[in-house]
Amino acid sequence: MNSFDYLRPASVREAVAAASEPGAAYLAAGTNLLDLMKGGIARPSRLVDISRLPGLDRIEALADGGVRIGALVRNADLARDRDFARRFSAVAEALLSGASAQLRNAATVGGNLLQRTRCAYFYDTASACNKRAPGSGCEARGGENRLHAVLGWSESCIATHPSDFCVPLVALDAVVEIEGKAGRREVPLETFHRLPGDAPDRESVLEPGEMIVALRLPAAAAQFAAHARYLKLRERTSYAFAVVSAAAALRMKDDTIEEARLALGGVALKPWRAREAERILAGGRADAALFRRAAEAALAEAKPSGDNGFKIELARRIVARALALAAAGTPERLPALPGSPFAALSGDVIHA
Amino acid sequence: MSVSMTLTVNGVRRKIELDDPRTTLLDLLRERLDLTGAKKGCDRGQCGACTVIVGGRRINSCLALAVSHDGADILTIEGVAQGDRLHPVQEAFLAHDGLQCGFCTPGQIMSAIGLIGEGQAGGDPERVREGMSGNLCRCAAYQGITQAVLEAEKALAASGLKEVA
User: Which residue of B has its CA nearest to A1?
Assistant: First the structure.
């Protein structure tokens, strides 16, 4: 790990000023950053520790029915917040399907959005990687790439975004609150992460020094509470990143879908909202044929970036299955293996 | 860049002069405070051998910067027994052969204490396995570990000792 200056500012304003210097990085829990620093992938010259900034660790019910989640709320605390988990259960399920209990106890909401890809070539400083070292090339392109992107990738980068949490969030129209030198601004999560294009080193819309202070979910996101699931296929039962995942949320009247939300994880360098599939689902009868049509639409533009053609059909099936699970209803209690295709459901489903 | 900090470790307040902010909580415990129970397995948050309880929550001490935890209350494996009386989770690991070589055991036990304190497993072996999935055991004593956690959960509930976690 390179040496760095350590600062612990007392306010968001001070933090933004300290982090606007070249080479500075924010430190919250550090569960991703310290790992990257140990591997020499991240080499900040200054760490701005925001983990104790006051007021950023709250989950607030908003007057309009939405919820505001402070950037320093720990993943486990959000997932276990009873009111939040009841209203946004797909988000809770996604959180609990990610990482391990120890990491969820430490990792923050803001940090989750900003976690870096798990592409092995990004992590290996001996490999060419346009994201880590712009212009050096992409060794993943002709390398071990069966888990890489099938949507939105470019010749310069075929990595995926590893977050589970972001997948239902983007489906539910989450908004990111950002504080910077020029004040506060808001960005829909859907446009927060950037696709690689020819500049994969630029991962989000954040400008130098800008900091995520909160996330918001609108009141409308809670209208899907009775039919919302997250489904995540992993290469082992637990404690693994998604090969492919999907968040499905439906607003239903009897067997008819009035409104649908759908997003995929593990397929692109950002959480992937599938709006065309949502349009196909709206107004339709919830059955296997409709779910398959929606799944076809969600992956219509997918193409392999290497030995990963299998992920396209896999993603279609995960989408169709997530929709079927959502249509069946949100379980009263999350399964023992949250998000797992192997989970046995226990207890009743909630019917609105 | 030297930093003064304090930690309460196993109930004892410690003043520490940290000469390098790069020090992880794990290295501080092991190298500076001679508490070598928490183990450095992968040092990257993948194996769980470094698990300790900070402010009542189990975390990977290898991915925690010591200086960032100034003032924290930390429980390590060295602090869970009361004199010669083992913690119920330690007792259960012995009773169920929840170990073979023992390297991962301090992390397993601290993780189990954390899991029981979180109160989410409720006697369900599948929930215990999922909740303990951040602790690898290369000897694969998983069956004994799961049984030990289930038994300790019951024993702690019966004795009202859950607050120990």
Answer: B22
